[in-house]
Design goal:
Region (Disordered): 106-187
Mean pLDDT: 75
Strand order of the largest sheet: 2-9-8-4-5
Helix content: 10-25%
Distance between the termini: 65 Å
GO cellular component, one term: neuron projection
Domain Ig-like: 2-95
Number of strands: 14
Organism: Cherax quadricarinatus (Australian red claw crayfish)
Structural class: alpha+beta
Number of helices: 3
Radius of gyration: 27 Å
Protein name: Ig-like domain-containing protein
Low-confidence stretches: 128-172
């Protein structure tokens, strides 16, 4: 009968990231190995799910990789091994770690539908600009341009990792500074 062990039975991941589940089996004769969801349905390699079984003699290594984890993916997954003498199974629970609690989190992987919604929403915001006291349109784009005119950093300057000093500030013209965990670096 197969023997099975799972290195990590509880795996945490943030939404939008990838996660890999592992399971090891030993059986003679060799076992049939597969993964199931919490409803007992077999998971096959397709779309966001990638299953691999690597056999070496009477040992087998099973891996289930879930790409771009969605809320519906937070559940227990079953690891099964069956041969002519019997069946063994184990579970790996995948739970959500809130992105706010993580450090160095990569950006969420957006679906095509989400990108279209954002693009449409951004277009609507630009059409809803109001005029300010000086007769100029007011809104996010105007605010960024107005700040740059006054020598302050706009949002895109901060994204590049620093803040360009204006001529009216102390220090050399054109210096850039950025804040790191070790302090402020100027270059």
């Amino acid at each position: 009968q197969p023997v099975l062990w799972i290195p990590n039975q509880l795996v945490g991941v943030a939404q939008g990231m990838d996660v890999t589940l592992e399971c090891h089996t030993e059986a003679y004769p060799n076992s049939i190995n597969y993964w199931t969801d919490d409803k007992g349905q077999m998971i096959l390699s397709s779309g966001r799910f990638d299953t691999i079984v690597a056999e070496n003699g009477y040992k087998a290594y099973m891996r289930l990789k879930i790409k771009n984890v969605q809320p519906s993916d937070f559940m227990s997954y079953g690891c099964y091994a069956k041969n002519s003498f019997g069946e063994t199974n184990g579970n790996v629970k995948v739970y959500e770690i809130p992105r706010q609690l993580m450090v160095n989190v990569p950006d969420l992987k957006e679906s095509e539908e989400d990108r279209k919604k954002k693009k449409k929403k951004k277009g609507e915001e630009n059409n809803e600009l109001e005029e300010g006291w000086d007769g100029e349109p007011q809104g996010e784009n105007h605010t960024k341009n107005h700040r740059r005119k006054e020598g302050q950093a706009g949002r895109s300057d901060r994204r590049r990792g620093g803040r360009r000093r204006g001529e009216d500030e102390d220090g050399d013209d054109g210096m850039v500074s950025t804040v790191t965990p070790d302090g402020v670096i100027e270059f």
